[in-house]
Amino acid sequence: MSARDADRSAAALATLTGDLYMAPDLDTLLEQTLRFVSVAITCDCAAIVLWPGHGVERWRVTGSDSRAARAQYIRYEPGEGMATVRSQPVMVGDTDAEVATELGLHSVMSSVIRARHHDIGVLDVYACERDAFRPSDTALAGALATHIAVAISTVTTADTLIRAIDAHTAIGQAVGILMERFDIGPDAAMVLLRRHSQEHNVKLRAVAADVVSAHRPATRWSQRSAGLPG
Model's pTM, two decimal places? Predict the structure, then answer.
């Protein structure tokens, strides 16, 4: 890679980093990353697989196209596959025989995505050509995986905080509605919400959201069923 190309790659990565940290959600973040990969690295497709935990709620695959997504499902089983890339931050080699035969993808470059000191996924870049990737590609992929990890932590933390605030707000509104409907205090209203949650095996925030959206708890909860004096 020439000095000019290196400067361009560095500038492009810097721009992408800013975009990733401003991504409104995880799906947007992953899609932006794959668009960058397809431009910055000579390849035929790319995909990211994330394992649940550490801010990621479920096993998910995002591919630049259907081939890339299919390759991930061939190479990894939900909850498995991390050991294949754990030994090094970036690994380059031949694809699985099934991936090569079915999809015509012969080279793969795998970069571990590590967040909060845990491996949470992998960025895989594929090429139809054998021995397709250069040292400069592995360096860029490794740097990109680091930025992805930080951005995922930022997005998932923000999303968790937003949901916690929304849940807290809904519960407060539901308490107010029950206080007015049954002429009870805030503690008794909260007990009522929790009892309904436990008896019906429904999360507290879902019970609160139902009360707020209907604004008619009397249609489901009479004073007797609520355990309140009539």
Answer: 0.61
